[in-house]
Specification:
The structure is a single chain. With 299 residues, the protein is an alpha/beta fold. Helix content is 36%, strand content 21%. The strands form four sheets. Strands 3, 6, 9, 10, 11, 12 and 13 form a seven-stranded mixed sheet that branches. It has a two-stranded parallel ribbon with strand order 1-2. Strands 4-5 form a two-stranded antiparallel sheet. Strand 12 (248-254) and strand 13 (257-271) form a beta hairpin. Helix 7 packs across helix 8 and helix 7 (128-142) crosses helix 9.
């Protein structure tokens, strides 16, 4: 396996070198595209694989589809194969639960509209996603168990004193998740500029290795496409992931009458080994409250 099938920062490469670990072997056995120090540690802690008579999952549906009609084979890219293995492993290993909520976007959209002239002056588009990143950064500070990773043996919770947020970007070459570093220390305009820059370079496959991996938590935003809800898969060693779908106008009973209110559906998937349902509900309720009143984020 060549290093084209994985991404690792220089510090991770150096760490693996000191431990005499082949990162290609780590990527192949873990099925991960982006490698972090935790992946190297997990690889070292794993026992040698043993032979098994159990057939691989794919053998159960090894069907000659051409026997039923015309077909066209389309080989998956290396990136897609690695991502597939990673997602399958994550879904098999993590007891995942998804909590759903929604956020009132009236004040946020009004604030964004009031900043159009400033956005034009700065040459930066102030998207709703920038507010989502800022709100998530605040919540990760207030709920430290979400900003953590579980050790490979499951015995230690590693609490992180930084806030890095991954942004899933759909590209023609597959899904990439570049990371906004120190999102808690950035203002909305900085975050908006970072999102635009990372998304543009991800599409052009110009993301550097040190701009991938090490996220506290990631956001998967399908708001520009559609849908009302989905269940994003937690990407280990992260403990949670936030999904966002398209804002919809719903009737809300307020001041003795129904009002049309733009609401954004939120989908929080989390690792139930560390995070319980009550904590997830509190986390997402706080998150929705921040979006409902953006002054809480800018003051």
């Amino acid at each position: 396996m060549s290093n084209e099938t994985y991404i690792a920062s220089p510090s991770v490469v150096a760490y693996a070198g000191r431990k005499k670990i082949d990162l290609s072997d780590v990527a192949r056995k873990s099925g991960r595209l982006t490698l972090a120090k935790e992946d190297v540690d997990s690889h070292m802690n794993q026992s040698a694989p043993t032979a098994s008579s159990t057939p691989a999952a794919g053998e159960y549906w090894d069907v000659d589809h051409a026997a039923f009609g015309p077909v066209s084979p389309e080989p998956l890219s290396r990136m897609a194969r690695v991502a597939s293995a990673n997602l399958s492993a994550a879904n098999a290993m993590i007891p995942q639960v998804t909590h759903h909520d929604r956020a009132d976007m009236r004040r946020l959209e009004a604030f964004r509209a009031s900043q159009k002239a400033e956005a034009a002056r700065r040459g930066v588009r102030l998207t709703a996603l920038a507010f989502h990143v800022k709100a998530l950064a605040i919540c990760l500070q207030e709920f430290p168990r979400f900003n953590a990773s579980l050790s490979p043996d499951g015995g230690t919770l590693v609490l992180k004193h930084y806030v890095h947020i991954g942004i899933a970007v759909d590209t023609p070459h597959g899904l990439l998740v570049p990371v906004i570093r120190d999102a808690d220390k950035k203002g909305l305009w900085q975050i908006a500029a970072s999102i635009a820059d990372l998304a543009t370079r991800a599409q052009a496959r110009k993301i550097r290795p040190d701009e991938m991996g090490g996220a506290s938590m990631s956001i998967s935003n399908l708001g520009g496409i559609g849908g009302t809800a989905f269940t994003p898969i937690v990407n280990p060693p992260e403990l949670a992931i936030l999904g966002i779908t398209r804002t919809e106008t719903v009737p809300v009973w307020e001041d003795e009458r129904w009002r049309p209110v733009p609401m954004t559906p939120l989908d929080l998937s989390y690792d139930h080994r560390v995070i319980n349902g009550a904590d997830a509900a509190r986390f997402l309720a706080r998150y929705a409250k921040l979006l409902a009143d953006p002054r809480r984020m800018v003051i």
